[in-house]
């Protein structure tokens, strides 16, 4: 089966055609090589050759590492009422594409904080290449030692990254400290449903994630944020829209594939990335995992 056929089968719940510990390289490469021998096969020089970082951007957009693209991002920050006088912080800034879009759209100044060293390194190179070091810089920060000065920004946002952090409480405290009085904070994250903690699909999802996820429940978020004297105005289950965004990104990529049109190495990366997202969607469909949007404000006094 080609990658495209495998993707369609996996998306509809067919078990993965390999054991993760039995050397997937040869199996996946055989699929790619077999497809390459067909009458419409792409020449090696025309094959898609992408690194993990490049693959993420092919899926989600230039400089982005999350499903939903500009529509998801702009919906998240829309309540802020941004303008060029605003300073903004983005946590889990990824490759910096989100901060770039917010800065371009509203003229605001966006400082990005990324918790993954690899993503941060690529983001720093990208912002320098595009001349964004002042308007939308991205820097690596250790979540456990993150330090933010008081009243550092008017608004903050994050898209789907806090579930990877073991010490979320510290990061949230720093965000609260950094917010101006009357400031706004919006974020999305994967959370666990109270009634779905023992769901087998949730356990399979955890196995596929690196780093090991540490999701909270919506109630835990509400309690923690309230204890920090923040007002939780919106806690919305956005799981259905998130699933549609995931499928749209993968479907658009798969639609472009031709027989033999993906290199051996890139095929392996795509299989690994697909497995992760298929397990995420399976856990979302089972109900144990949810994707929530939160909108939070800091009192003026």
UniProtKB/TrEMBL annotation:
<keyword id="KW-0489">Methyltransferase</keyword>
<feature type="compositionally biased region" description="Low complexity">
    <location>
        <begin position="31"/>
        <end position="47"/>
    </location>
</feature>
<feature type="domain" description="Methyltransferase type 12">
    <location>
        <begin position="90"/>
        <end position="185"/>
    </location>
</feature>
<comment type="pathway">
    <text>Phospholipid metabolism.</text>
</comment>
<feature type="region of interest" description="Disordered">
    <location>
        <begin position="14"/>
        <end position="47"/>
    </location>
</feature>
<dbReference type="InterPro" id="IPR029063">
    <property type="entry name" value="SAM-dependent_MTases_sf"/>
</dbReference>
<dbReference type="InterPro" id="IPR013217">
    <property type="entry name" value="Methyltransf_12"/>
</dbReference>
<dbReference type="GO" id="GO:0008168">
    <property type="term" value="F:methyltransferase activity"/>
</dbReference>
<comment type="pathway">
    <text>Lipid metabolism.</text>
</comment>
<dbReference type="Pfam" id="PF08242">
    <property type="entry name" value="Methyltransf_12"/>
</dbReference>
<protein>
    <recommendedName>
        <fullName>Methyltransferase type 12 domain-containing protein</fullName>
    </recommendedName>
</protein>
<keyword id="KW-0808">Transferase</keyword>
<dbReference type="GO" id="GO:0032259">
    <property type="term" value="P:methylation"/>
</dbReference>
């Amino acid at each position: 089966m080609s990658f495209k056929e495998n993707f369609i089968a996996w998306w509809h719940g067919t078990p993965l055609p390999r054991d993760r510990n039995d050397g997937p390289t040869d199996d996946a490469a055989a699929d790619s090589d077999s497809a390459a021998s067909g009458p419409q096969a792409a020449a090696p020089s025309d094959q898609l050759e992408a690194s993990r970082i490049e693959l993420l951007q092919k899926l989600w957009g230039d400089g982005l590492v999350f499903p939903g693209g500009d529509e998801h991002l702009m919906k998240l920050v829309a309540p802020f009422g941004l303008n060029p006088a605003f300073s903004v912080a983005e946590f889990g800034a990824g490759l910096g594409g989100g901060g770039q879009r917010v800065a371009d759209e509203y003229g605001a100044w966006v400082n990005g904080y990324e918790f993954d060293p690899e993503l941060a390194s690529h983001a720093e190179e990208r912002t320098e290449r595009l001349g964004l070091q002042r308007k939308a810089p991205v820097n690596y920060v250790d979540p456990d030692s993150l330090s933010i000065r008081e009243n550092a920004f008017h608004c903050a946002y994050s898209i789907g990254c806090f579930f990877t952090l073991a010490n979320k409480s510290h990061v949230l405290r720093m965000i609260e400290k950094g917010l101006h009085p009357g400031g706004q904070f919006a974020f999305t994250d994967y959370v666990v449903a109270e009634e779905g903690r023992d769901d087998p699909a949730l356990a399979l999802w955890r196995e596929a994630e690196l780093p090991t996820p540490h999701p909270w429940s919506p109630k835990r978020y509400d309690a923690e944020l309230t204890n920090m004297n923040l007002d939780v105005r919106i806690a919305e289950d956005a799981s259905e829209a998130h699933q549609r965004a995931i499928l749209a990104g993968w479907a658009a990529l798969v639609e472009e594939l031709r027989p033999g049109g993906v290199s051996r190495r890139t095929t392996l990366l795509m299989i690994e990335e697909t497995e992760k997202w298929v397990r995420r969607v399976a856990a979302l469909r089972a109900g144990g995992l949810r994707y929530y949007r939160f909108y939070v404000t800091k009192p003026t006094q």
